[in-house]
Design goal:
431 residues; mainly beta; 3 helices; disordered N terminus; disordered C terminus
């Protein structure tokens, strides 16, 4: 019996040892698998922004801007490219900005960072096709197309000069959240062209000597989304036209226009408000609202213009309020408007127009509480207009509480509908 009990105990001990060894082998295998997994798939920390330096003025090769853009395109974080050289001449299109984390190109602290695209046959200098990108402190010259072509969201350009290009910054229809501030645009065909403007800010820029316009923002169909564009605090000088805007939700305010050659602000269509701008010099016209609907023009000051301060032509439901026009050829003409949805002119002051204060030509606006003083010829002129098809556009403004100087009774001409002026003769606008 004792031998049997000993054999049982010895068997139990060997069984326990075998079980312990099996558990140890399993644990070792699991530990080995975990260790091998962590070696082949290490835990990644968050990506950090990187910086590349442009140290070569060559168009390509080590240290060039082209190489830096190639490297930035494949980076796993936002990359800033610092241009440390004074001048780069590019001869072929640069790589686009495509990194989804963003690419910034900035001038180094001791660099002029000028990019000359004179040898480029076509295409933009910078093609921004990725979000979260920026350009700061550069000078871009002699572009055959755009200095910057923007086709992405969340872009900022600051303290940059773009000169002698076809278009300075060309914002395509799929762009949004754009900030252009404290830049200089000079001698381009168009300084900034906006095809799409959700959440766009154009602020504190200088526009000079553009052959078409400083800023061009026109849609063929109305795009009146709430988050439109703000054009504020810019300076326009010696441009053919300062701003041309149409069918967009846009606020144009607190800008200065000096010696614009044709028209400071030309408005077309819907969605536009023009407030508190200063327009001075020898331009033919200050603000023109043409075929406009629901446009607001208020609290602007205009002086020294050779012809019209504010012209409203072929428009409806336009509000012209609290503007000051002085020492211009004419004050405000209202031409061929929509009599069922009339324009309203209220609380405007017109001082010392060389010829007439208010012209009403084939239109029936509401004129309320306006003041005309020291008109060279007459404070008010009302005239019906004969259209090319022979029909007559009657002029019958609603007059309420206006204040004209003492010369009004002698010189205000109210022509009868029986003898309207033919359209196109120029008689209503002759001195």
């Amino acid at each position: 019996m004792k031998i049997k009990n000993f054999e049982i105990k010895n068997f139990d001990r060997r069984l326990a040892e075998a079980a312990a060894l099996l558990l140890a082998l399993v644990a070792f295998a699991v530990l080995g698998f975990w260790y091998d997994s962590t070696r082949s798939n290490p835990v990644q920390g968050p990506a950090t922004a990187s910086t590349l330096s442009v140290t070569s003025a060559a168009d390509q090769g080590p240290g060039s801007l082209r190489e830096a853009l190639f490297l930035a395109a494949t980076a796993d974080a936002r990359t800033t490219i610092v241009v440390q050289v004074d001048r780069i001449e590019i001869t072929t299109p640069l790589p686009p900005f495509v990194n989804p984390h963003g690419i910034g190109v900035v001038a180094g602290p001791e660099s002029h960072a000028e990019i000359d695209a004179q040898a480029l046959s076509s295409g933009p200098v910078f093609d921004v096709n990725g979000p979260n990108s920026s350009v700061e402190g550069l000078t871009i010259r002699n572009c055959p197309a755009a200095g910057v072509l923007l086709r992405a969201s969340r872009f900022r350009m600051a303290a940059t000069n773009i000169e002698a290009c076809d278009v300075g910054v060309d914002v395509a229809a799929n762009a949004a959240d754009v900030v252009l501030e404290q830049n200089g645009f000079a001698g381009n065909r168009v300084g900034v062209r906006l095809a799409a403007i959700p959440n766009a800010l154009v602020s504190g820029n200088r526009f000079n000597a553009h052959s078409d316009a400083g800023l061009w923002a026109v849609q063929s169909e109305p795009d009146l989304r709430k988050s439109g564009a703000i054009v504020r605090g810019n300076q326009f000088g010696d441009d053919r036209m300062g701003i041309v805007a149409g069918n967009l939700s846009m606020l144009v305010e607190e800008n200065t226009f000096l010696d614009v050659r044709e028209t400071a602000i030309h408005l077309i269509g819907e969605g536009l408000a023009v407030r508190a701008n200063r327009i001075s010099g020898t331009a033919a016209m200050g603000i023109v609202a043409e075929n406009a609907r629901g446009v607001v023009i208020e609290r602007n000051e205009l002086d020294g213009l050779s012809t019209y301060g504010i012209m409203v032509r072929g428009s409806a439901n336009t509000l012209v309020r609290a503007n000051l026009i002085h020492n211009c050829g004419y004050g405000m003409p209202f031409v061929l408007g929509d009599g069922r949805n009339p324009t309203t002119a209220v609380d405007n002051s017109i001082v010392a127009p060389h010829y007439r204060g208010i012209d009403v030509i084939g239109d029936s606006p509401i004129l309320r509480h306006n003041r005309v003083q020291q008109a060279g010829k007459s404070p008010l002129h009302v005239e019906s207009l004969q259209r090319p098809d022979g029909s007559v556009a009657k002029a019958n403004p609603l007059r309420d509480g206006n204040s004209f100087d003492e010369r009004e009774a002698a010189v205000a001409a109210i022509r009868s509908d029986s003898s309207p002026t033919p359209a196109g003769t120029g008689r209503p606008f002759a001195p």
